Amino acid sequence: MSRELTVIACLSLAGGQGKTTFVTLMGKVLAAAGYTVLLVDGDPQSNLTTFLGHEVAADEPTLLELFKGNVELEDAIYPTKIKNLYLIPSDDGLDNVQEYLSGSGVGAMLLKKRLAAAQGSFDICLIDSPPQRSQICKSVIGAAEQIIIPCEATVKGFGSLVRTIDAINELKEVGASSAEILGVIPFRDKWVGSNQTKESRDAIAAMATVVEQAMILPSIRESEKFKQAISREQTLEELGVPELGYPFEMLLKRLESKEVVAA
Amino acid sequence: MSEMLDRIGRRSSQRPKVSRDTSLTNGQSTELAAAPTRLSSTDAAASIEAKLAALPEVTSRRSVRIEKSLFESLSTFCQQHGITIETFLEASYIASSAEPELQSQIVIEAQRRMEERKQAGKLRRILAQLNTNA
């Protein structure tokens, strides 16, 4: 059966905004729902690669070689321990692609071109992006059809949202991106008992002044359980906290209801 | 399972071997190797800086929010002419400064839009308060 590929980027232009946490857990949710998912580790810090338990050998192809066109797409894709979940890994070497992209003249379009061969084999490609406004970031925006912006429920997170939307609009303006923003996910939304902290509430309210209220998705609560689920390579259900999976389930519903992916 | 997924599953021994540089220090040694030519690079940089100084400076990036119904046609218009929304805005200001009648029409339209935005902002705030209290 031929599949319609949807490329979704997880983007937020600051560190600690929950990009890799989101991609790791959302990738698993999508794979568990029966979609064939390709995760792309676009950050040279390569935490997504680590979180998925993948070890990159020095002589094995990564996203760097795919970017440069040294290998075919399928040479850079690795199965993970999880059914339906595949990975294009990275390591520190990915930093070297910056110069290549800035000199190529088509840097913003390159990842889209390299991923085109995934059409027909994968349902969803989910890209983890670096926190800097770098050439890699440009190429990630250029490749994306949909963008999810996780933002910490703090002043820093709000600033990251504004910078991220600016960067997307800048590329749209020059015709290098046609991505739609799928939603903003407040991250580390802090609650004390049944009360949301003022900082979280104010930051999320401020986010709703930058994008439409309907774009603000259910928040990811501050909890050590997310780190535990990732480091133990367990799902939130397996860890005994299925309620924390709510934002991921809701996003899956949104993807299906908007027909971004076939239900 | 698609043919590609099948191939990926059987690929472990068939992947091409690659080599890549993951060190920070190798980049530095390249810079050191280029040191003898640094003087000419400095001259070139000074010449570029002089050329840059002769061109207008721009402010840091500001967020420009455009009415949705206009954004697409305005972007298309700018793309067709190889300009950006910012340079169009600058040129429009300069051109209309020489045409007082046209400029006053623009200001009246802009003030009407400003009122609409203020009203939308107030309504959003009230709605947010209602939702918070609900």
Describe the model:
- Chain B: InterPro entries: McdB.
- Chain B: Residues 21-31 have a biased composition (Polar residues).
- Chain B: Residues 1-39 are annotated as: Disordered.
- The complex is a heterodimer of chains A (263) and B (134).
- Chain A is of the alpha/beta class and 263 residues long.
- Chain A has helices at residues 19-32, 47-51, 63-68, 97-104, 107-115, 135-143, 155-173, 198-210, 224-231, 246-257, and strands at 6-10, 37-41, 78-79, 85-88, 124-128, 146-152, 180-189, 191-192, 195-196, 220-221.
- In chain A, the strands form 2 sheets. Chain A has an 8-stranded mixed beta sheet with strand order 3-4-2-5-1-6-7-10, sandwiched between helices. A two-stranded antiparallel ribbon of chain A has the order 8-9.
- The longest helix of chain A is centred in the middle third of the chain and has 19 residues, at 155-173.
- The model of chain A has no long low-confidence stretch (mean pLDDT 92).
- With 134 residues, chain B is mainly α.
- Chain B has a domain at 68-133.
- Helices cover 69% and strands 0% of the residues of chain B.
- Chain B has helices at residues 3-9, 25-33, 38-53, 68-80, 85-97, 100-133.
- The two termini of chain B are 49 Å apart.
- In chain B, 1% of the residues are buried.
- Mean pLDDT of chain B is 81; it is low at 28-38.
- The interface between A and B is medium-sized, with 38 and 28 residues.
Brief rundown of the structure:
Chain B: InterPro entries: McdB. The complex is a heterodimer of chains A (263) and B (134). By secondary structure, chain A is of the alpha/beta class.
